[in-house]
Write a structure and sequence with these properties.
The protein is mainly α. It is 49% helix and 8% strand. The strands form two sheets. A three-stranded mixed beta sheet has the order 4-3-5. A hairpin with a 5-residue loop joins strand 3 (173-177) and strand 4 (183-186). The longest helix is centred in the first third of the chain and has 24 residues, at 34-57. The chain starts with a helix and ends in an 18-residue tail after the last helix.
Length: 245
């Protein structure tokens, strides 16, 4: 069974940011107001609920019928519902997803499902996917990565590094946390060396001395903000990076 602790605390964090935020204001996400963020998080709970159904019953249910359908759903909800209705929907769908996760059995947790990006993962990954959503979108509603548990910040940076490496995205560099001992090595492997990516601390590896790659230093929270597109590079001269998800 997956550890649901970070998910539960992240759900509470997102709810607190949602209550404190003016949802009609623009966010740091291009073209999105707080309404769009909340609509997305509510729609994400429904989409992940479809994966939970898949894991529990074996009946395939993709998260979204298409990327376009996902975008249309977010725009429709953000435009049709009031701020109070959106907040209510986000809380209701979060509770439904948490209840569905709690009903999965031991063997069902190991059933494989497919993410919206096409990765085939065990159902335990659904918990991490949702954890990532609620914490990071809490930042989009005015929060900060400095609010997060330290181990969660490290896991988020490791997750991004793992996804970059799986896609062969690069650029090659070293990320070094100045407020801890974590070091992440970003590489650009061959396209045929794609593997499963996740929040494992296996992505946090010892420093390899003598490598001719740039090193970017910052607090773990600053690095997390940068690699997820929520903040600037922690120091001048950092390499340009692409999208995360």
């Amino acid at each position: 069974m997956a550890d649901l602790g970070w998910l539960d605390s992240g759900t509470a964090y997102f709810a607190s940011r949602m209550e404190a935020c003016d949802l009609d204001r623009a966010t740091r996400l291009p073209g999105w107001t707080g309404r769009h963020v909340v609509a997305h998080v509510a729609a994400n709970a429904l989409a992940l609920g479809r994966l939970v159904h898949w894991a529990r019953t074996g009946e395939e249910r993709p998260m979204y019928s298409s990327p376009q359908a996902r975008d249309v759903e977010i725009e429709e909800l953000a435009g049709r519902l009031s701020a109070a209705e959106l907040a209510g929907l986000a809380k209701e769908t979060a509770e439904e997803l948490r209840a569905d996760l709690g009903r999965l059995s031991g063997t069902q947790w190991e059933a494989t499902v497919r993410t919206a990006q096409g990765r085939v993962v065990p159902a335990t990954e659904i918990v991490w996917m949702r954890t990532r959503e609620v914490w990071i979108h809490g930042v989009d509603l005015g929060g900060s990565f400095a609010d997060f548990p330290g181990e969660l910040v490290d896991a988020l940076v490791g997750d991004v590094v793992g996804l970059w490496s799986a896609r062969g995205q690069g650029p090659a560099m070293v990320l070094r946390a100045t407020d801890g001992e974590a070091v992440w090595h970003v590489s650009a492997p061959a396209a045929d060396s794609v593997g499963a990516a996740g929040p494992s601390q296996a992505d946090v590896v010892p420093e390899v001395r003598g490598t001719a790659v740039p090193e970017v230093r910052g607090t773990a929270a600053e690095l997390a903000a940068w690699v997820t597109g929520r903040g600037p590079a922690p120091e001048p001269g950092a390499p340009a990076i692409g999208r995360w998800l």
